[in-house]
Amino acid sequence: MCEMCGQNSHHGFAPTRRGLLLGGSATGLVWASGARAKETKAPPKPENAISSDAALKRLKDGNGRYINGVSRRHDFKHEREALAGGQNPYAAILSCADSRIAPEYAFDSGRGDLFVCRVAGNFATDETVASLEYAVAVLNVPLILVLGHDACGAIDATIKSMKDGNQLPGHLPTLVTGLTPAVKAVMDHGGSLLDNAIRQNVIDTVSKLKSATPILSAAVESNKLKVVGGIYRLKDGRVDMVG
Ligand SMILES: [Zn+2]
What does pTM read for this prediction? Predict the structure, then answer.
């Protein structure tokens, strides 16, 4: 039983990559020993064992179907059985928590396809980085997409809080702290401060994930992982790539 996620077996799909990523120094990670015993187990979704570029193309193709209203019918009942013993998603997504985004819908993907982390403002906390490290090192995800969206309320609230000098109630200042650097970086740029900050936040988060040592940075350097950014357009569902 995996101590991290409670599942029985979801590891061992690409032992070469794991060995490359974790090396000898990381063998203390809780999943390492279980992974070796399962090396020969076939992944539950063989079609998801693809390259970074193929994963990005699959996301774009799925978004195209979503935009055009021709999303596939997903066999959730059958997939449920196939995925009971493990998972091998083809991409990880760090998305805003905004209820209008819904990455599985936006990319017309089924269960077990996307490893999704969501937080208002789609910035990378330590917990999010750790979750994505798990996706890459254990589940062998070849692609991370940071997904912002236009009219983001978290970034708009950050801008207002900075301008007014008012501290938001409760735990909301945590979001402001996380999003302030992106707003400050574009404060003097022309055009819409909100639009510019949304874009900058995606760029900054992509950069942070790419350079997150030791797991994500090593995966990027060895060409096992790509980290890309996109912005979801609320009106038509289109995801524009950033950077
Ligand atoms: Zn948002």
Answer: 0.85
